[in-house]
């Protein structure tokens, strides 16, 4: 996975770079096939003190991309919250795909029980599930 980091109105330090790399690389452990990540770090000194730092994360995946954004007074807290939002979306996506596969296989197994025919598109999955 490639991580693109874009700081705006902010000095990029080694600790910030390490924190971003650590948070984004932890997303790979969720089992997603992440192609690339683009992280934008914004510092707006004219904004209210509670929303001074903004982190935007965009993940490129096969299929629809995932995006999250958060603003906080502390950059590291904003980074953690934006990463948590993206992680929640990745878990939801993974659960949805697994449920879809399970429903399709279960529907085919039920069709085999009722009339004995197996849909051609999922014969391999039915044989594995019937065992």
Describe the secondary-structure layout.
Blueprint: E1 2-8, H1 14-27, E2 36-43, E3 53-60, E4 66-72, H2 75-115, H3 123-130
Parallel strand pairs: 1-2
Antiparallel strand pairs: 2-3, 3-4
In short:
This protein has 131 residues and is an alpha+beta fold. The chain has helices at residues 14-27, 75-115, 123-130; strands at 2-8, 36-43, 53-60, 66-72.
What attributes does this structure have?
48% helix, 4 strands, four-stranded mixed sheet, 131 residues
Q: Which strand order does the major sheet show?
A: 1-2-3-4
Tell me which CATH architecture applies here: 2-Layer Sandwich
Overall mean pLDDT stands at: 85
- Percent of residues in helices: 40-55%
Low-confidence stretches: none
Overall body shape:
elongated
Binned strand content: 15-25%
Q: Write the CATH homologous superfamily.
A: Ribosome hibernation promotion factor-like
**H/E series, N to C?**
EHEEEHH
> What is the level 1 CATH name?
Alpha Beta
Taken together, the total number of domains comes to 1
How far apart are the termini?
A: 37 Å
What structural class do helix, strand and pairing data support?
alpha+beta
Q: Determine the number of helices (DSSP H or I, runs of at least 4 residues).
A: 3
The gyration radius over C-alpha positions equals 21 Å
What's the CATH topology name?
Double Stranded RNA Binding Domain
Largest sheet: 4 strands, mixed
Topology, number of strands: 4
